Each structure stands twice: as structure tokens, then as C-alpha cells.
Amino acid sequence: MTKALVLGGGGVTGIAWHLGLLCGLRRAGVPIGDADTIVGTSAGAVVGTLLATGVDLEAAVAAQEQQIDATPPRPAGTTGRLARLAVLMDTSIPAQQARAKVGTMALAAATQDEPSWLARIGTLLPVTEWPARDLRLVVVDTADGRDVVLDAASGAPLLSAVAASCAVPGLMPPVTIDGRRYMDGGVRLGAGADLAAGADRLVVVAPMAMLSRDRIVEEMAATGAARTLLIEPDQASLEAFGPNFMDRSRRPASVRAGLRQGEELASAVREVWSA
To answer: What positions constitute the catalytic site (predicted)?
Structure first.
């Protein structure tokens, strides 16, 4: 019996909620961290890497609960973000072509430099080498819109792979790997569940499921898994996130919301994961 855990995108608040949810499940006795395969996209790439490297979830949650300075959150680039989302949601444009158009927009955007972005991601990761676990991180090629899975066999540095998967177009710079530039795997939409094909048990955690729930359900069905479960934020968690998914001041509320949902959903997850 093989188990796959898929972690979707969701920005700063999504990272906090993911960590809280996984910690809540562990507190309730659900060994979600024993997944044979972990697929991570964007925020899920950070959390998946932490989980695969054996991070202390209690310590990670405690760090998220700490209040931080009152520096105003970085704007989420609402106008540009909506324009990019409109391209991706336009069914008259083939999906890969739409992603390529967003890639062009990402390359043209005035964002922070790539080395600074890599350094910022580096502060989130406890290791620089790929873990022994089957960890798969999702990115999108800015040039042609191809979605690419990076893992230990890909040759990509772990730091670059995580940074690329988190490189939200217009907010963070695309990341260079072997001469190609990659952006946020979330541009693919969905959660990347189809990349866990072959698993017998599948749990998908998607902080932004509301944007592409139908796509995620299709991905899950495509895996052929005998037992599946989609976990998404409830209304209280969405309120904890607030309107800006990059708002660091929302981390404490988001991680607490995740803890609550993890404990509440423990029985449902156990039925899929351990029964």
C-alpha cells in the first residue's frame, strides 16, 4: 500500500495553515508524515520539503504563532494577479499556451532580483540537499508553459527547486535552473494531485482549492487511488487568511486555524490514510 500526500499553493498564510493542519493531525495520532510520496506546489513545496526532511512540526507551528513586526504586508499585486488569473482561466486558450503567456508576463514584471529571492527561501529551509524521501516539486517553464516536476533525480538544486515553485508571477522573479527560467507551479492550477499517480491512498491539502476545485477533483480521480480525500480551508480558516495571501501578520491566525481543522478532520483522514 503506497500513500501520497499532495500539498498545494497558498502563499504565506497557506504555509502557516499547512503546518498547523499537519501538526493538528499528528497531535490526533494520524501519521500523515509517513507518506511514501510528497508532491508540493508553491507554499506546498516549502511545507513538503520541511516534512520530507523531518522538521519538528511543533517547533514550526510555534514559530508561525509568534507575532512579527508591524511592517505593512507586501501588496499581492491585485490588478496584475487578476490579469494573470484571467489568462489561465480563459478556456478559449490551450492551457499550456496560457501558461506561456503568463510566463512572458512574469519575465517582464519588475520584481526583486533572483539572488535575493533564493536567499529569502533559504531562510525557510533547514537543509540544502534533497531528502531521501520521494519529494516532487512542481514548477512551470516560463518559455513554453510546460509543467515540470523536479526531484532528487532532476539535478536541480533543492533551494532553486523550492524557490522556483514559489515564484508567484509578478511578485517573485522566475528562477534559473540549467539555463531555463521557471515560475510558480501554481500557474498550472489544480494542486498537482495527478503527479501522485499510482498511489493507493491519497490526501490532498489545498489552501486555494476554491480557485480550481473541479480541476483538483479531476486530478485526484486520474491517480486511480482507492481512497482519496481533499482537505481545503473552511470558512473560519479563509477568514483567518484575510484578503492578502502574502500578509505575514496573518500567520498566527492561519496556523491556529490549521491546527483546529487538523484535529477536527483527524477521523476522516485516518479512514483514508490508515484504515
So the answer is: 42, 184
**Residue 37 φ/ψ, nearest 5 degrees:** -130, 135
- Is residue 87 assigned to a domain? no
3-state secondary structure of 198: coil
| Single-letter residue type at 225 | A
Residue 81 domain-assigned (yes or no):
no
| Chain-centre distance for alpha carbon 223 | 19
Reported confidence tier of residue 112, pLDDT bands at 50, 70, 90: confident
What domain range includes position 115?
A: 3-72+111-274
Is 212 known to be catalytic? Answer: no
pLDDT band per the 50, 70, 90 thresholds, residue 76? very low
Residue 70 has pLDDT above 60, yes or no: no
Number of domains in the chain: 1
CA 24 to CA 258: how far, in whole Å? Answer: 7
Instruction: Read off the pLDDT band of 189 (50, 70, 90).
Output: confident
Active site residue 184: yes
Q: Are 32 and 262 in contact (CB under 8 A)?
A: no
Indicate whether 178 belongs to any domain.
yes
125 phi, psi to nearest 5 deg: -105, 135
Domain assignment present for 14: yes
Look-up of cell digits 476522516:
268
Point out the catalytic residue in the list 141, 147, 165, 184.
184
